[in-house]
């Protein structure tokens, strides 16, 4: 049976993001994949309302779906996406980050949190691979959170990122076509996806540049100073993306590297057990809030002051 590979673009039609995606998908197709491609601009995806119905249900061990399921195309897309063996995302960079068109789609995925759905038996575990392409007109200095922002949206639907490409200095429409190396790298990303799919589940691994990024776990290029977490866990330095914890160590050649400590992958967001730790946090913080009627009554009373306050707005 052919592997199923889906492409998701979030930019202009037949411009850089979509063209690089098509190059990667053609490599998958040439290797025998059954390919599907969408551009998010062709679909209606509403903003998350912040109603918390999905997470409230999670904190109670229930599945509620999304209150917007019958109002837009998100569920239709997710039903297909979650059946794929791999998904390649190609997204323009706006102001250092993935564009809003993509983030609107991604931030509606909490209702489809696969670690939770697997935990309560709604779905069976499926290993899904992902390739990420971020596209912008400048170098990494103006795309510093682009790939990392895309990586962060992979956790909810349990996509294992096996390759990433940062396409730089292609501000003009379809300008990427003039860069043979860039197009070749997009093709290689597609080939890497197929090569990785051919490996047995459990042995599928990172296929991109081995020394990419600061983090040896997820290959992100972003570290932050650690802070004490809700359960008391503390790391001096954390990977901003996967949550790996450790510290910076100077190597023999005088350079710095991020070394993950012994328990540094306890809350690894790229794994189901790691994300399950966050579900424990949701149960503790949100669950305890809703479980106490006194909390709800007090909030309702305190909220009146702010609900009744009105400021001039824009007509």
**Helix run count:** 9
Portion in strands: 15-25%
CATH architecture of the largest domain: 3-Layer(aba) Sandwich
Separation of the first and last Cα atoms: 57 Å
- What would the average pLDDT be, to the nearest integer? 94
CATH topology value of the largest domain: Rossmann fold
Write down the domain tally.
2
Radius of gyration: 21 Å
H/E element sequence: EHEHHEEHHEHEHEEEEHH
Given this structure, which CATH class of the largest domain is correct?
Alpha Beta
Secondary structure: helix percent: 25-40%
**Uncertain spans:** none
- Cα shape: globular
Structure in a nutshell:
The chain is α/β, with parallel strands linked by helices and 315 residues long. The chain has helices at residues 16-30, 53-59, 74-81, 100-106, 114-119, 146-152, 180-197, 272-291, 293-308; strands spanning 4-9, 34-39, 86-94, 97-98, 128-135, 159-167, 223-225, 237-239, 245-250, 256-260. 33% of the residues lie in helices and 18% in strands.
């Amino acid at each position: 049976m052919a592997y199923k590979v889906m492409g998701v673009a979030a930019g202009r039609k037949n411009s850089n993001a979509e063209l690089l995606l098509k190059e990667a998908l053609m490599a998958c197709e040439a290797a025998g994949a059954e390919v599907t491609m969408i551009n998010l601009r062709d679909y209606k995806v509403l903003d998350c309302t912040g109603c918390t119905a999905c997470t409230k249900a999670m904190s109670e061990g229930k599945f509620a779906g999304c209150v917007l399921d019958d109002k837009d195309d998100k569920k239709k897309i997710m039903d297909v996406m979650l059946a794929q063996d791999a998904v390649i995302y190609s997204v323009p960079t706006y102001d250092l980050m993935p564009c809003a068109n993509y983030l609107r789609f991604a931030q509606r995925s909490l209702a489809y949190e696969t670690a939770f759905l697997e935990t309560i038996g709604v779905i069976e575990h499926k290993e899904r691979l992902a390739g990420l392409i971020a596209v912008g007109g400048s170098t990494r200095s103006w795309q510093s959170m682009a790939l990392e922002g895309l990586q962060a949206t992979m956790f909810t639907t349990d996509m294992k990122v096996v390759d990433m490409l940062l396409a730089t200095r292609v501000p003009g429409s379809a300008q990427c076509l003039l860069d043979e190396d860039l197009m070749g790298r997009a093709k290689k990303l597609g080939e890497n996806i197929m090569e990785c799919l051919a490996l047995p589940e459990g042995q599928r691994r990172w296929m991109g540049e081995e020394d990419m990024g600061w983090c040896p776990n997820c290959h992100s290029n972003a570290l932050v100073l650690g802070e004490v977490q809700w359960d008391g866990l503390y790391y001096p330095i954390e990977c901003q993306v996967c949550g790996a914890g450790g510290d910076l160590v100077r190597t023999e050649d005088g350079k710095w590297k991020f070394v993950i400590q012994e328990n540094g992958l306890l809350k690894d967001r790229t794994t189901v057990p790691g994300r399950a730790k966050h579900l424990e946090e949701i149960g503790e913080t949100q669950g305890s809030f809703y479980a106490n009627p006194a909390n709800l009554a007090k909030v309702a009373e305190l909220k009146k002051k702010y609900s009744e306050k009105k400021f001039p707005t824009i007509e």
